[in-house]
Amino acid sequence: xxxxxxxxxxxxxxxxxxxxxxxxxxxxxxxxxxxxxxxxxxxxxxxxxxxxxxxxxxxxxxxxxxxxxxxxxxxxxxxxxxxxxxxxxxxxxxxxxxxxxxxxxxxxxxxxxxxxxxxxxxxxxxxxxxxxxxxxxxxxxxxxxxxxxxxxxxxxxxxxxxxxxxxxxxxxxxxxxxxxxxxxxxxxxxxxxxxxxxxxxxxxxxxxxxxxxxxxxxxxxxxxxxxxxxxxx
Amino acid sequence: xxxxxxxxxxxxxxxxxxxxxxxxxxxxxxxxxxxxxxxxxxxxxxxxxxxxxxxxxxxxxxxxxxxxxxxxxxxxxxxxxxxxxxxxxxxxxxxxxxxxxxxxxxxxxxxxxxxxxxxxxxxxxxxxxxxxxxxxxxxxxxxxxxxxxxxxxxxxxxxxxxxxxxxxxxxxxxxxxxxxxxxxxxxxxxxxxxxxxxxxxxxxxxxxxxxxxxxxxxxxxxxxxxxx
Lengths: 233, 228
Description:
- The structure holds 2 protein chains of 2 kinds.
- Chain A is 27% helix and 26% strand.
- By secondary structure, chain A is of the alpha/beta class.
- Helix content of chain B is 85%, strand content 0%.
- Chain B has helices at 2-24, 26-46, 50-82, 85-91, 97-125, 134-160, 165-192, 200-225.
- Chain B is globular.
- The interface between A and B is medium-sized, with 30 and 29 residues.
């Protein structure tokens, strides 16, 4: 295992990516500290998802470097994935498996135990009534909740969430926010791709806005998260 | 510990692939039906001459397995692409070759079952006499199936990233499978005819060498073909 050279959750320098002749990212430089929850904003096609996929080791950058907790995303992708919890825009579930079987498969792949933890995750996301039903019959919101339950199977050091609120009702949004905030309080970072700030109000510490593949603005969140400080009160 | 985790992941992927195929039903049924249909069509093309049918049987059997196999290999990644599951699969910790081995295990069982049906149908349709050296013939079937599955699973992963994957897979796969098909057909034919010239051994050695070389090569290369 490589030596950890940085304590930052994300450290990116000049990350660029092109698809064919079109540059989607044109040199992104950003940092995310452990425990920090950052919203990634931008219009459609601005490069938010591409950046998230690069940090998630699903795409390689065409130029630039990035480290996740000190591990280089290109040279040490296996070490990077050990630290990540990734929620893509699509749920990534298997329609012909039941909710519990989907979680069981994820637990096996994550090297987690297979037992009461699956039921606990299903209970947390409110899907105990459909535990043994196939995902094919689930609504988009239920599939999103199940993907969220998969995220709960372990405690990753960094959450990468791509439009996590899509298809969720108000209870689902509250659940998502509680999971993000818990990750922050536990010292893990979270980078959340958003179309609008409203659902994440009170959750974010900072927002980064991307325009045409470049960081246009990095600013404190309009309604910043209330941090729990050890020893306070 | 890491090896135990890898084995656990391989088992999970194979279980998942086989379970989804078993439940979708359409997958295996269509693959097996295609294999048998191609055999029947070969039968019509060759006519009623029993000797001609027996002569052509090894070629017809392996080509049926090949065409039906392509359908199976495409399906193996189709399941991952349907709801963005491939990205999630690539996101799990651990080396990516475990995904290949897991899919290889599932496809081996899938193609093995398909071969049982196609060979049984072939024996009946082509009036094949079971030779005394039938265990060797089964060995050739296994070696041929391994070559087919190793390359089929690998190239299906490569084609899965393309919109034209259904067309791309045969274009990539068929030329690479020529040595496997040639060796498997020749060894099968020699064994069915009693192997008077003792030529089956040489073909089996070629088949084995090809299987080993491509198993190692595809294991090493999988990580690069599955990435964008």
